[in-house]
Write a structure and sequence with these properties.
The structure is a single chain. By secondary structure, this protein is an alpha+beta fold. About 35% of the residues lie in helices and about 20% in strands. It is built from 9 helices and 12 strands. Helix 1 packs antiparallel against helix 3 and helix 7 packs antiparallel against helix 8. The protein is globular.
């Protein structure tokens, strides 16, 4: 092996070890959870205690899955100290693998792609996975996303869907032109959009719009003020929310609907400033009214 390749393979070897440590931490936490299932609320309803192991091990792209899409596991777990410590070990292992994957990405252009293809070989059910034609590549967001662990007792948790609707980014005419030119500039629909762009002032601001998936928002109300005086906190959750168990019980939970609202509930005021039809459909770019 050449000296130039040694650092790359050392990083991949370290990645194998970190990934094994992550899966081991997941299995330890899941086994502890399953041995004496704590009070748990799940959005998806009832089920056996193995759901948590399946959720934590869900780190893979499925066939035809949008790479930006993640599968969420909305739940609240009232955990005792040993279980909280086990979940913290999972988070630490996730952070370690995230840091290493960033090092691999920076060290070599194709390194991250190699890593994502390599790790399925270390999945505990890889033969079954590959046989069913499902998960084939590591889903980075699902791999390193943290379990939200609350550090203090909580009296109430209010869960609600947060449909922010769309993110709006202001761009210049020059930036829009560059983005169009990165597409197939010989395609008729791109040429039409370039002509439209050339017909407006170069100083006119434009808005690029990105649809956003609904999020689950957890509003936490603590039993006592925290050291900084806070009595409540809000956070988005995609993984089970872990709260300290109070006499083995869950806090009071305001249960959300099973499905997010069909209509977006936020960002309408900003959207009203935009024309109703896209000015550059290929880029989801709108003109301001």
């Amino acid at each position: 092996m050449s000296d130039a390749l040694r650092p790359h393979y050392r990083l991949l070897h370290e990645l194998d070890e970190r990934f094994d440590q992550l899966t081991a931490a997941i299995h330890r936490a899941a086994t502890l959870y399953e041995s004496a299932p704590p009070a748990t609320w799940r959005l998806s309803g009832s089920g056996d205690a193995t759901w948590l192991r399946d959720a934590l091990l869900d780190m893979w792209h499925q066939q035809h899955q949008d790479g930006r899409e993640t599968r969420n596991y909305i739940a609240v777990i009232a955990a005792d100290e040993p279980l909280i410590e086990a979940f913290q070990e999972v988070n630490a292992a996730k952070s370690a693998i995230s840091t290493l994957l960033q090092r691999i990405k920076q060290s070599e252009p194709g390194g991250l792609s190699d890593a994502k293809q390599r790790l399925p070989q270390r999945h505990p059910d890889v033969e079954k996975v590959l046989r069913t034609g499902g998960m084939a590549r590591l889903h980075l967001k699902q791999c390193w996303r943290q379990l939200p662990i609350v550090e203090a007792p909580v009296a109430r948790v209010r869960l609600a869907w947060y449909s922010s609707g769309r993110s709006i980014k202001r761009i210049t005419v020059q930036e829009a032109e560059q983005k169009l030119l990165q597409l197939d500039s010989d395609a008729p629909h791109v040429r039409i959009q370039l002509r439209k762009l050339a017909g407006i002032p170069s100083s006119e601001p434009l808005a690029q719009v990105q649809n956003q998936a609904p999020l689950m928002r957890a509003n936490l109300f603590f039993t006592e003020p925290l050291m900084d005086g806070q009595t409540r906190r809000a956070l988005n959750i995609a993984m089970p929310l872990v709260v300290p168990a109070h006499e083995g019980r869950l806090p009071h939970i305001k249960v959300p609907p099973m499905e997010p609202p069909a209509q977006r509930t936020r960002a309408k005021r900003r959207d009203e400033k935009l024309e109703s039809d896209a000015f550059l459909p290929s880029l989801r770019v709108y003109r301001y009214r």
